[in-house]
Specification:
single chain; alpha+beta; Jelly Rolls
């Protein structure tokens, strides 16, 4: 995996604590609708600016494309295609020191890294793109470990909130959206992922053509708990008020199946 950047070179934890930006474990656990934290100024400013500047354009040959009625986005987790500085940062997020930091915050012991960044890495949303509300896979399809925690870092300088793209957090009964989190530059969102962790950005992005919603995503795992639901793909759900569409419901069913999900991604020729 090569050398791992020291977390202190990338994050100024002391400054985050001094500015009371770093949440307490109690505030994390008591956040609604499920445990989460929003942390602005997550990386040292010069590091965040460098990552944003090296983030690939949608026309780059690194991306594979999700293009179906549930999700329209670009993603890349291939080590040879992710820019080196971004890959070094992703690898740092997987370090023992970083995992312990997140374990102390969340109370989740024994966090393990997914060094292949399955489903994570770089994400890019173009104008008109979206990601419907869903809960994530619960069991890693290759490692057999339980997914417990998500980290998302936004790299969008000068983001205009009129463009939308907010991360929505819904209650576990899917009756209402409780939080909407704008994808502002150098903002991180950390949240528990489980059966009630419904999230997404289901409204089509309204940014001008040429602008994109850029983010990095890292997922943390543990040994499976006895009560863990064995689900190997994301489960998408309708929002209240969405029109009843049998074809869309069938797509949701196929998208959540381990044997059928690849048939409905509609990946581009750049697929891995």
């Amino acid at each position: 995996m090569g050398l791992v950047m020291d977390i202190d070179l990338v994050m100024d934890i002391d400054a985050l604590n001094d500015l009371t930006k770093w949440p307490s474990p109690d505030s994390y656990r008591n956040a609604q609708p499920f445990p989460h934290a929003v942390i602005d100024g997550f990386l040292r400013p010069e590091i965040a600016a460098e990552l944003a500047a090296t983030f690939p354009a949608p026309s780059a040959d690194c991306w594979y494309r999700y293009a179906n009625p549930l999700e329209r986005k670009l993603a890349c987790n291939a080590p040879g295609k992710v820019p080196s500085r971004i890959w070094e940062t992703l690898t740092m997020f997987n370090s023992v020191k970083c995992r312990q930091l997140f374990s102390d915050l969340t109370g989740i012991e024994g966090l393990k890294a997914d060094h292949d960044f399955h489903g994570g890495g770089m994400h890019c949303i173009e104008s008109g793109g979206k990601l419907d509300v869903h809960v994530d896979y619960s069991i890693h399809p290759h490692l057999g470990l339980e997914r417990r925690l998500n980290l998302i870092l936004y790299l969008n300088p000068s983001w205009d909130q009129n463009w939308g793209g907010e991360l929505q957090l819904w209650d576990r009964e899917m009756k209402g959206c409780v939080q909407q989190i704008a994808p502002l530059f150098n903002r991180a969102v950390i949240f528990d992922t489980g059966e009630g962790s419904f999230h997404g950005h289901p409204d089509a992005l309204r940014c001008p053509v040429g602008q994109t919603r850029k983010s990095l995503a890292v997922y943390y795992l543990t040994d499976p708990r006895p009560e863990a639901i064995k689900r190997y793909r994301a489960r998408f759900v309708a929002r209240p008020g969405d029109s009843v569409d049998p074809q869309l419901e069938e797509l949701r069913r196929l998208r959540s199946g381990l044997a059928t999900s690849a048939d409905v991604y509609r990946l581009s020729e750049k697929s891995e």
